[in-house]
Amino acid sequence: MTTARIKHILKDGQPGDELTIQGWVRTKRDSKGFSFLEVNDGSSMSGLQVVVDGQVPHYDDLMVRISTGASVEVAGRLVASPGKGQRVEMQAAQVTLYGESDAATYPLQKKRHSFEFLRTIGHLRSRTNTLGAVFRVRNACANAIHEFFQARDFLWMHTPILTASDCEGAGELFTVTSFNLDKLPKSEDGRVDFSQDFFCKPTYLTVSGQLEAEIMAMAFANVYTFGPTFRAENSNTSRHLAEFWMVEPEMAFCDLEGNMDLAEDFLKFIFRRVLEDCADDMEFFNQRIDNSVLATADNIINSEFERITYSDAIKLLEKADKKFEYPVSWGLDMQSEHERYLAEDYFKKPVIVTDYPTEIKAFYMRLSDDEKTVAAMDVLAPRIGEIIGGSQREERLAVLERRITEAGLPKEDYWWYLDLRRYGTVPHAGFGLGFERLVQFITGMANIRDVIPFPRTPDNVEF
Ligand code: 4AD
Ligand code: MG
């Protein structure tokens, strides 16, 4: 007898197959002389219905001890299911109880729980239908991302988590130290003396792998990073995490146009893949979470993304018949309400906004001839707002030096970044996709805390 995953049984299992399954009991119903168990092993939304009759060894004892949440192994034979909802079910020959689950205290009951409540039981919530579906889709997205880039000869490069540079220059860094915080060494001017710290200089958790990805792109032409990034940004919203995953392709010999094309192809590919790989989960999101999920996916795959300059987008927003909470005018950063108006209300599809004012974007973006704007691009998605941020990079040494100085950043810290412009510089471009925002976008989940297994947000680092 072989141990099988339930998703394969539901799809391909035939009456007569003798199999063993392992999983957790979602529900138990007792009838006269037999019981039904629904066993779920996380491989699919649906569990397998198991019929345990009184002939099964230790039946009485097992049925007293098995309750929702218990872990079991069941060996048995598949039979055609007379009931509705499943093609096959299992007739148990032998049931092994691995771990009981105290019925009086197990927090997951058959009723619907709020996502707020589920966050307080982060160690158990993945056993619910919704979180199970979310994390299967999350996995499918990650897989699709690698598939997309590998098929295009991009090398996956692992960029460091510990870094001495602030890529975005926004000062949202978590400091990393091995100092005893009660006994911080101070230099004469009273400031902390980092020369005595582990790395002998101030060190942080990375906000982006871009700068290192640029290094690698200057050797391999096309690369991507995919890893955790950290921002000490105290924004308690449904779209911000302190620790989130980012996918960052970087391409040599590429301009903003090529960057936009890649971003659009990339999103379309992931949506297509997820619809194929997680059809049941996507159906579930459409029915239970947001009834526009499948239509949105269809729209992403089949529509051409709108492309518009920041200046034109501001004009649209100024003319909009919608009252915004925050003012909008040329030179101001767009708020999420503006981004959503453009993608959700106006164009009703993803919008790529380009050529943002120099002042509101990072130092590394390529300066336009009139110096008022930079070659930036943000992809705005309905419901989510900014899902991708990217740019063509400044490849001209003199301009980059000036931009670093103007941004008030210490030029010496960027010596290697500047060297890339000294030795074989090329036009290059890349972007960062917020992985959790992508999963939110695909699943329709309202809160970013519910699309990452263990969310880190202000005041929350449990589990
Ligand atoms: O726009 P951002 O800050 O761009 C960068 O970090 C560039 N270095 C990327 C690059 O060009 N290689 O961040 C990129 C994306 C955003 O569009 C957003 O989707 C996501 O990362 N993001 C966050 N996601 C969750 N929580 C946060 N606090 C996020 N901040 C950014
Ligand atoms: Mg951004």
Any overview of this molecule?
The protein has 463 residues and is an alpha+beta fold. 31% of the residues lie in helices and 24% in strands. The protein has 13 helices and 17 strands. It has helices at residues 6-12, 59-65, 115-120, 129-151, 210-220, 256-277, 279-288, 293-302, 310-319, 336-346, 397-406, 415-422, 435-443; strands spanning 2-3, 18-30, 34-40, 48-53, 71-80, 88-99, 155-156, 162-163, 175-176, 203-205, 222-230, 243-252, 306-309, 351-357, 373-381, 385-392, 428-434. It has an eight-stranded mixed beta sheet. The protein has a five-stranded mixed β-barrel with strand order 2-3-4-6-5. Strands 8-10-9 form a three-stranded antiparallel beta sheet, with no helix packed on it. Helix 4 packs across helix 6 and helix 4 crosses helix 13. Magnesium ion (MG) is lined by residues 378, 386, 389.
